[in-house]
Amino acid sequence: MAILTAAGGALILTVGVLALYHDLTGEVSAAITTELRIRADDVAHDVEVPGVVRARPVIAQVLTTTGETLFPPGAEPLLTAKEVAAATRHQLVVDGPIPGVGTHARLLARPVRTGRYGPVVVAAATTTEPLERARDRLRLILGVAGPALIATTALVAWLLARAALRPVRRMARDAATISLHERGRRLPEPPGRDEIAELGITLNQMLSRIEASIAHERAFIDDASHELRSPIAVARGELELAAQDLRDPVDLDAARAGVDSALEETNRLARITEDLLTLARVDAGQLPPGTAACDLLSAARAAADRLPGAAGIEVRGAPVTVQADPIWIDRIFTNLITNAAHYARHRILVEVTRRDGLAVLVVADDGPGFPDLLLPRAFDRFVRGDGGRGARGGTGLGLAIVASLAGALGGQARATNGPPLGGARVEVILPAAG
Amino acid sequence: MTQPEPSEASAAAGDARRVLVVDDDAKLATILVLALQRAGYDARAVESGDQALWAILTHQPDALVLDVVIPHPSGVEVCRHLRAHGWTGGIVMISARSNPDDRSTAIRAGADTFLAKPFGLTDLIAAVGTLLTDPPGPPGAAPPSR
């Protein structure tokens, strides 16, 4: 970056120096031409006045259109026949050696119509030695001082750029050593409010977000590990005790009870595993695309009918269709109704309505509702309202799956307490079809 | 406080070493207590750190089987508190989490040993036995039943 800055500065200075050289020499050259033109005009005027042709300090001639010298009479023409022919049509400027003028000279010739001699060619010539000397001097100065100036400019630009980028280098050095296992470590933020300070702040904010995400993932792994290992620990313990019960003295009833308990834990482990796999598939975007038009009211009734004690579940509303895999819709209803059944005292309400082009599913119960502290985390994984980790009611993943599926289907889930039954209320909103 | 009935053998032997199991997983706690009772210990279980601290005062166990993740205070906090107040009983810390820091945290808090779930009941009995040098209950007694 510093090298680019230095190179850019050197390039700009070089272009500037060349432009200055071109401009200066061009100005001087134009001034010479202007002077010649003025003198040519003077000569043209003097041609009308007999005996007077003033040309000092410029050498001037008046020629006929055939190339003969009118003034001064008998002088060697300054122009060749070809140049005379050109000058009868337009103004002509020629640079080069001119006899009587010098090695570096400029001649200007232009056509003039006079009263006395008719059409003539007026030529004026002057030396351009001053111009050449100026050019040489400028070339010498720029040739010697220019590179030194350009090099100095490049060096200063490089040093300034390095100084300006020092905070960025420091940030890069620290960033290379930051490990995400070092919680709370951040990059040094330069003082001030410029772009580099803003970069430091932005990078530290990004580190905070990454750290939070990693902490969230670690917490999930810890929770998942606990939830998976606990039933395994219980099943193993039960089977070890049952094995003891089958040794002398044999206690078949105790052994049988132990095996039944181990089987129950194995089933629970299977449910947790299946739920985790479902969440993993949804998170990975492996949810099958909408393959069918699902009538939510029918799906709600089917899920409610499968639940033992379905008599206490009221399903009402209007047919509303969504485009989704029927398996996932059934999973949403099953999880919501199962969760409600776990807490309801007497009643569960399942309602399906359409509102503003959206399908709205509501499952409510008359139980105690979500604990206040739990409500903001109702859809988090492994969160239970029934006593936490020790309870063996659900897997703690039912509502998390509902929220993930709703999100994958383009909708969302929301949990509240209160109406219509005074207990928990979970609402799922999905895009309606048609 | 949930607990299986103390075994006849351990109850009869008044000098049976007392072990307190602290785990909010009621089913697992029951299994661990039963296994300890069959090994001749006077074992009972509680579900939380608060209950554990109270039970230590009232029942004066010789050793704890202490889960890391329990309702307030946590197993590590209970361990740290006990050691800070000079409690010298044996502590076997148990955990079902996959956090690799749990073992070192538990040992730094004062636990004598750490077992990761799922562990074998024989491993638990061996760990408790190592901490309690006196032999467990009288030989030949019938093992406690469920």
Topology readout:
The complex is a heterodimer of chains A (about 425) and B (about 150).
Chain A: H1 2-47, E1 59-64, E2 69-71, H2 81-87, E3 92-98, E4 102-114, E5 118-127, H3 129-177, H4 195-245, H5 252-283, E6 293-295, H6 296-306, E7 313-317, E8 321-323, H7 326-343, E9 348-355, E10 358-365, H8 398-408, E11 412-417, E12 424-431
Parallel strand pairs in A: 7-9
Antiparallel strand pairs in A: 1-2, 1-5, 3-4, 4-5, 6-8, 9-10, 10-12, 11-12
Helix pairs in contact in A: 1-3, 4-5, 5-8, 6-7, 7-8
Chain B: H1 8-12, E1 18-22, H2 26-38, E2 42-46, H3 49-59, E3 63-67, H4 75-84, E4 90-95, H5 101-109, E5 113-116, H6 121-131
Please explain how this structure is put together.
The complex is a heterodimer of chains A (434) and B (146). Chain A is an alpha+beta fold and 434 residues long. Chain A folds into 3 domains: 2-133, Beta-Lactamase (2-Layer Sandwich), CATH 3.30.450; 195-283, Orthogonal Bundle (Helix Hairpins), CATH 1.10.287.130; 293-431, Heat Shock Protein 90 (2-Layer Sandwich). Chain A is built from 8 helices and 12 strands. In chain A, helix 1 packs antiparallel against helix 3 and helix 7 runs antiparallel to helix 8. Chain B has a single domain (8-131), classed as Rossmann fold, CATH 3.40.50. Chain B has 6 helices and 5 strands; from the N terminus they run αβαβαβαβαβα. The A-B interface holds A 218, 221-222, 225-226, 229-230, 232-238, 240-241, 244-245, 249, 251, 254, 257-258, 261, 265, 387-390, 392 and B 23-28, 31-32, 34-35, 38, 47, 69, 71, 96-99, 117-122, 142-143, 145-146.
